[in-house]
Amino acid sequence: MDQHIDIQKCLLAFARILDKGEQVAGGYFLEGVTAKSMDDGYTVMLGNRDCQLSIYFHNKFGIESPSQKSTDSFIKLLYRIAEQ
Fold first, then answer.
1. Mean pLDDT per segment of 10 residues, for the chain of length 84 residues?
2. Which of 15, 17, 42, 49 has CB 3.0 to 4.6 Å from 21, enough for a Cys bridge?
3. Is-contact 51 71, C-beta < 8 A?
4. Which of 40, 34, 39 is CA-nearest to residue 17?
């Protein structure tokens, strides 16, 4: 996958997880992904056992991941959730 991440698709995945996911401590869980929002009202976080994507104000983002392969798999999973 290229370096571009479609933040709008990731935000759609976030909304779908909130809508269809199971409520867990601090967020919602669906298909291996936990979604939660921070108290600032602007930051959302999506994560699985390997990766964490933080989306900030003005669609800026940061991703923590052990490898590019893990990042690619995680982003593909988010896109799949967004398209459901």
1. 81 97 94 94 94 94 95 97 95
2. 17
3. yes
4. 34
Q: β-pairing, 44-47 with 33-37?
A: antiparallel
Contact criterion met (CB below 8 Å) for 54 and 62: yes
Amino acid symbol at 81:
I
Closest by CA to 43, choosing from 22, 32, 30, 58, is: 58
Query: What separation in angstroms does the CA of 68 have from each of 5, 23, 50, 51, 55?
Result: 13, 29, 11, 10, 18
Q: Which helix (H) or strand (E) holds 75?
A: helix 68-82
Q: Tokens in use for 48?
A: 């699985």
